[in-house]
Amino acid sequence: MKLPKVSGGLNYRSGMNMSRDEKDGITPSECASVTVINGKVCLNLPLGFGRYCLDVPRSIPDGTILRGCGDICWKSGLFGVQFPAGACGIVTAPGIGEVARGCVGDC
Fold first, then answer.
1. ∠ at Cα 36 (10, 93), nearest 5°?
2. pLDDT tens digits for 90-100?
3. 3-class DSSP state for residue 80?
4. I want to staple 17 with a disulfide (CB 3.0 to 4.6 A). Which of 3, 27, 54, 78 is the partner?
5. Distance from C-alpha of 20 to C-alpha of 43, rounded to nearest angstrom
6. pTM value?
7. What is the pLDDT of residues 25-57, one digit of tens each?
8. What Cα–Cα distance (Å) separates residue 101 from each residue in 20, 23, 82?
9. How buried is residue 38: exposed, middle or buried, by Cβ count under 10 Å (0-12/13-18/19+)?
10. At residue 49, what are phi and psi to the nearest 5 degrees?
11. What are the φ/ψ torsions at residue 44 (nearest 5 degrees)?
12. Helix %, strand %, coil % for the chain, to 5?
């Protein structure tokens, strides 16, 4: 499943989120500033998916502040009840765009 590209400021919520009536989907979640440390950025993903670190390109130096967003992947369960099945992190840089992306769970 391909993730939607997310844009906007901190604590961004988008109209791109999928309705609960759809079978499966990804709900864009909140975004925050993240700092590159040792060539990585770490995101605290929502709904208990925990801390998730992503490698960024070597051309982005340590100390650079980027934008990280955590997204929840939803699946349909028994009787059509939606449940969080995984989470994804997307990191963007001003003037560059997306620099890292990764998922945990079933996305």
1. 50
2. 999 999 999 99
3. helix
4. 27
5. 25
6. 0.66
7. 555 567 889 999 999 999 887 777 788 899 999
8. 24, 24, 24
9. exposed
10. -80, -10
11. -95, 100
12. 5, 55, 45
